[in-house]
Specification:
By secondary structure, this protein is an alpha/beta fold. The chain contains twelve helices and nine strands. It has two domains: 136 residues, Aspartate/ornithine carbamoyltransferase (Rossmann fold), CATH 3.40.50; 154 residues, Rossmann fold. The strands form two sheets. The protein has a five-stranded parallel sheet. Helix 4 links the parallel strand 3 and strand 4. The structure holds phosphoric acid mono(formamide)ester and norvaline. The site of norvaline has 9 residues, from helix 6.
């Protein structure tokens, strides 16, 4: 444990060079998985996974990844802990800091990620907040590297809500140099403050439109996410109307480059944000993308917990 921990609250906590180093190491770990050369770089350590929202991929990929690194995963469903009975988050942070070497935290408002990190002397990893989902972006960038080789200059079309995933793509674009076009309905555009931060990073380009076809024109990657995120369940009906015309279907994919691939962080709703023909079709890389959560997070944990 260190008194100045490295965190992953958002991608802004990583330098572009660190992102590339983590992705390269993730690919190496993918190849070495199950061999003696893989080793147990976090042997004897422990990592907590604290969940205030549902999770399938994040929980399983972290638990398995932590185990494969030689460490112990400890998963807590927040409502079943003393947090659910009013124990302050800052007390939880101080207690975790004495037990485990890092904590993965999935929550609602992003300020809770900041609060946990501020009171922790161990790394805090954002396992999804309403504002960002950085672990998913590491896996998505790994998927692009595997598919295309280099990241710089790739064109990515985001079709849908200006949500935590859209925000994370924006930061990634500014850090690794993607040409990102976001097509979001009126009223569902990303946060202007995140756009300003992403543009200030100085690499790539980010454009906003309300026209999915325009965003997808010639794109190497077309990606989307659910129309109602966790915590927005009551808006689901309203959003269904607002997002009409934003389904990624064969016609939209046909606007992309010939080599275009489709990504989705999952869970997906076939017939809403994506057609079954696209997500289950030949351009989809969603299963590779989901698997990459494992490799990317293992490399991330090793990077965050390295000495010095
Ligand atoms: N993509 C993702 O974070 O999935 P889960 O919500 O299942 O963890
Ligand atoms: N935007 C979605 C992503 C789920 C992985 C949500 O926050 O629910």
């Amino acid at each position: 444990m260190t008194s100045t921990p490295r965190h992953l609250r958002s991608l802004l906590d990583l330098e572009p060079e660190a992102i590339h180093a983590i992705l390269d190491r993730a690919q190496e770990m993918r190849v070495l998985r199950g061999t003696p050369e893989h080793g147990l770089p976090l042997a004897g350590k422990s990592v907590a996974i604290l969940l205030e929202k549902a999770s399938t991929r994040t929980r399983v990929s972290f638990e398995v990844g932590i185990h494969e690194l030689g460490a112990l995963p400890v998963t807590l469903i927040a409502k079943d802990t003393q947090l659910g009975r009013g124990e302050p988050l800052s007390d939880t942070a101080r207690m975790f800091s004495g037990y485990v070497h890092a904590v993965v935290y999935r929550t609602f408002g992003h300020e809770r990620i900041e609060e946990l990190a501020a009171a922790s002397t161990i790394p805090v990893i954002n396992g999804l907040s309403a504002l960002y989902h950085p672990c998913q972006l590491l896996a998505d960038l790994l998927t692009l590297k595997q598919e295309f080789g280099a990241l710089e200059g790739l064109s990515v079309a985001w079709v849908g809500d200006g949500n935590n995933m859209a925000h994370s793509w924006m930061l990634a674009a500014g850090m690794v140099g993607l040409d990102l076009r976001l097509a979001c309905p009126e009223g569902y555009q990303p946060e202007p403050s995140v756009l300003a931060q992403a543009q200030a990073l100085g690499r790539g380009s980010i454009t906003l439109t309300t026209d999915p076809g325009q965003a997808c024109e010639g794109a190497d990657v077309v990606t989307t996410d659910v129309w109602a995120s966790m915590g927005q369940e009551e808006e689901a009906k309203l959003r269904l109307k607002a997002f009409a015309g934003f389904e990624v279907d064969d016609a939209l994919m046909a606007r992309g480059a010939e080599r275009a691939i489709f990504l989705h962080c999952l869970p997906a709703h076939r017939g809403e944000e994506v057609s079954a023909s696209v997500i289950d079709g030949p351009q989809s890389r969603v299963w590779r993308e989901a698997e990459n959560r494992l490799h990317a997070q293992k490399a991330l944990l090793e990077w965050l917990l390295r000495d010095g």
